[in-house]
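Async update (no meeting this week)

Hi team, since we skipped the sync, here's where things stand on the single-chain job. The sequence we agreed to prioritize is pasted below, unchanged from the tracker. I ran it this morning and attached the output directly underneath so nobody has to dig for it. Comments welcome in thread, and please keep replies under the output.
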Amino acid sequence: MDVKHIIYSRPYDHSGGTRVLVELTSAKTYVGRQDVDSVIGRNQLQ
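Output:
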């Protein structure tokens, strides 16, 4: 897989698989500042 970047405009939709994608591809992940806590697990995703 040749994935370089993962960009989330709405991370609550699909961010659950990000860790696996990053482990497989070493892609850089980008998310809006307001969603960082949810994506890294500090807040519950809705």
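Quick observations from my side:
The chain has two helices and two strands.
Residues 7 and 30 are 5 Å apart (CA to CA).
Reply here if anything looks off.
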